[in-house]
Design a protein that fits this description.
With 246 residues, this protein is an alpha+beta fold. It contains eight helices and five strands. It folds into two domains: 167 residues, Beta-Lactamase (2-Layer Sandwich), CATH 3.30.450; 58 residues, Winged helix-like DNA-binding domain superfamily/Winged helix DNA-binding domain (Arc Repressor Mutant, subunit A, Orthogonal Bundle).
Length: 246
Amino acid sequence: MAQQTLLPASYVVDRMQDLVLKTQDVKEMLDELADFSAVTLTDPALAFCSITLMRRKKPVTVASSEERAMRLDQTQYTIGAGPCLSAIREQVIVHVPDLANDDRWPSFTSAAVQVGVGSSLSVPLALEGEAEAGLNLYSTKARGFTEVDMDSVQAYAYHASKALRVAVRLSQLAETKKHLLATLESRTTIDLATGAIMAQNRCSQEAAMKILQVASSTRNVKLRDLASSVVSSLTKDPRVRTHFDA
């Protein structure tokens, strides 16, 4: 790999902060992180980058600087083994200097050689909680990564980990908000249906809820879906609004 000029740590930190503060969403931030990593750590004419996130033992490529990186990551996920998965699971740097002559993961190395990849370098990224991650670099040349490159990647990974932790937290917050709004909407729908049944049958809230639950069980329909059909039958607008709608 062509010798890269090592960027000052202050520049890397500033760029990471910009990614967090100026990108519009988590996906955009991660894609830019992958692009920046590829340009910063390698010769972009020879190498490309991806970022693997593993949550609940399930890996997914959350960003990449080129399609080939995603395809090679997916090959590893399919067979359940490969350099990026080993780096994450064992929390060590995994360097494959010559993929054509490496016999640890035959299916992966075969796929890599077919798309013109000669070497790879995978580095674990430190996260918190149950999530794990790795930075994956692929070079079109055999022995495309030098000892200096590996030292640079390891130092860079420290800063990239911080940016990725922020991205994971933002994603988790967005997911929590989505689930909360869905729960509130579901609860509102059930409450409206219960009120309608109370009015129609002149019964208590407890009795109305029991009617809903029995009907849900008998028809094998989710309680929220049954409640929604009750509300829809009473109004031309089936949509249910809550005070918490975004």
